[in-house]
Design brief:
With 307 residues, this protein is α/β, with parallel strands linked by helices. The protein has helices spanning 3-15, 18-25, 29-43, 59-86, 99-104, 106-116, 129-138, 201-213, 227-236, 245-250, 285-306; strands at residues 48-50, 55-57, 91-97, 120-126, 143-147, 155-171, 181-183, 191-194, 219-223, 241-244, 260-266, 271-279. Strands 3, 4, 5, 6, 7, 10, 11 and 12 form an eight-stranded mixed β-sheet that branches. It has a two-stranded antiparallel sheet with strand order 1-2. Strands 8-9 form a two-stranded parallel sheet. α8 (201-213) links the parallel β8 (191-194) and β9 (219-223). α1 (3-15) crosses α4. The mean pLDDT is 92.
Length: 307
């Protein structure tokens, strides 16, 4: 069964006249008759009855006409959807993000995406930098909003206009708990808890780079997978951990009743830049549309600040 045979049959059903149907399809009547015969042979039933006076559909033909119209309509919708997706007007987009991106990048960018490209379905996934980049590599994410940027040629990236400071995390009974800030060099005398580098390479490297700038070596005695685990560990041991300031605020560090406190670091202040990252061979046109929305939102922010 061929698609063109379905179209020819539907045209015959509408015209009930082979001459007019053939003219609409730009076919000769013998060619149209041959297509109908092939269709009926493939189905094993007669769809059209005709004599010298009339052309009519058989009961099987009437039932088949309804089904054939649905098939043709569905194929047309599929073609239109494919074309819209290829042009970036429809389709899907999977975005990974971290906490600062959820507060400072996504709200305005997603508002613009909804306004400009309402037929693109967006999925959101909160992950740390390492898992985001892994998901980007295996194709389960289209865009990653992360700290830092990868050095591999497999990815492209764009720095976003938002810088995130890091803070020290200590327990309520730690001697730093009541201090408003601590010079980074004082970490020399502290036992530290740190996460594995693959969880967030940019944050890990920033912490060690700040240590190198102050000519100290961090004494990492414990490891933790995430800021939540870090907060638990420092609450029961005299350790110093690290977190981004937005994460510390979101976890309520320092509020009455909390078991951990965020302490500012300075000389130097370790900071991280947010980046949008995507695959170098990205075939999804919705990625470029999302990046345009991110850029326009940030430009508006800059104009508002300078006004």
């Amino acid at each position: 069964m061929e698609f063109r045979h379905l179209v020819s049959f539907i045209t015959i059903a509408e015209e009930l006249h082979f001459g007019r149907a053939a003219q609409r399809l730009h076919l000769t009547q013998p060619s149209l008759s041959a297509q109908l015969q092939k269709l009926e042979k493939s189905l094993g039933v007669q769809l059209v009855a005709r004599n010298s006076h009339e052309v009519r559909l058989t009961p099987a033909g009437r039932e088949f006409e309804s089904q054939a119209r649905q098939i043709v309509a569905q194929l047309d919708r599929a073609a239109q959807a494919a074309k819209a997706t290829a042009e970036g007007r429809a389709g899907s987009l999977s975005i990974g993000y971290n906490l600062p991106a959820s507060r400072h990048v996504l709200p305005e960018a997603l508002t613009r995406m909804t306004e400009r490209h309402p037929d693109i379905v967006v999925s959101l996934w909160e992950k740390r930098t390492g898992p985001q980049l892994a998901a980007l590599a295996d194709g389960s994410l289209d865009v990653a909003l992360v700290y830092g940027h990868p050095s591999t040629a497999d990815f492209r990236y764009r720095r976003l206009l938002h810088r995130v400071p890091l803070v020290a995390v200590v327990g309520r009974r730690h001697r730093w708990a009541d201090r408003p800030g601590v010079p980074f060099a004082e970490l020399q005398s502290q036992d530290c808890v740190l996460f594995a580098r693959e969880q967030c390479p940019a944050m890990y490297d920033t912490i060690l780079r700040s240590a190198a700038e102050t000519r100290i070596s961090l004494n990492v005695t414990h490891s933790a997978d995430d800021p939540g685990a870090t907060a638990h560990m420092v609450s029961v041991r005299p350790l110093v951990g690290f977190a981004s300031l937005p994460r510390a605020i979101s976890m309520g560090m320092g509020v009455p009743g909390s078991s951990s406190v965020a302490v500012k670091l300075f000389d130097p202040v370790p900071t991280l830049d947010l980046h949008a990252v995507w695959r170098a061979d990205e075939p999804n046109p919705a990625v470029a549309l999302f990046l345009e929305c991110v850029e326009s939102a940030q430009l508006d922010d800059v104009r508002a600040l300078s006004a």
